[in-house]
Amino acid sequence: MTGGFTHFDAEGRAVMVDVSDKDETERTATATGSVFMAAETLALILSGGVKKGDVLSVARLAGIMAAKRTPDLIPLCHPLALTSAKVDLTCDPGRNAVDITATCKLKGRTGVEMEALTAVSVAALTVYDMCKAVDRAMTIGDVRLAHKAGGKSGEYGTPR
User: Fold this and answer.
1) Enzyme catalytic residues
2) pLDDT tens for residues 38-90?
3) How far apart are the two ends of the chain, measured CA to CA in Å?
4) Is 116's pLDDT higher than 80?
């Protein structure tokens, strides 16, 4: 193997990347995604008529909790002490979608992209779970890293 960050050791075995030589910097990442559904399903969410409860509040909490548990879900992710995890959900009746934005922050040696992406993914899955009794055809899509800042690789994407 050549130098640099890799998830493999000299014998080709999977390992967690050693970040001990990296400087601690302020790091932030924002991810986005959407859950697309029938207009009637979105109307139920907006009216508070989903039998399982307040979909947006539960999904927000699930996303925050998931960001904090990312190393338990994604192999070889570093356990991080997040200083902030924010998840916002907005309804877009024009697209019959719930749009999700998650932003995670910390001061550390590795980025928080996976935490933001995990937060969006779990929040989207929670929306699906809470509404699947009325709309099994919902789709989850457009999950992506929208912005990251900090660390050696610098800035990516458009700040939110």
Assistant:
1) 129
2) 999 999 999 999 999 999 999 999 999 999 999 999 988 889 999 999 999 99
3) 37
4) yes
Q: For residue 13, count CB atoms less than 10 angstroms from its CB and return exposed for 0-12, middle for 13-18, buried for 19 or more.
A: exposed
Q: Give the DSSP letter of residue 109.
A: S
Average model confidence (pLDDT) across the chain: 91
Annotated binding site: 76-78, 114-115
* Cα dihedral across residues 134, 140, 146, 148: positive or negative: positive
**Stated length of the chain:** 160
* 152-to-24, 77, 97, 107 alpha-carbon distances in Å: 10, 18, 36, 13
Helix (H/G/I), strand (E/B), else coil: 9: coil
Q: Provide the pLDDT for residue 5.
A: 56
Binding-site sequence positions for substrate: 76-78, 114-115
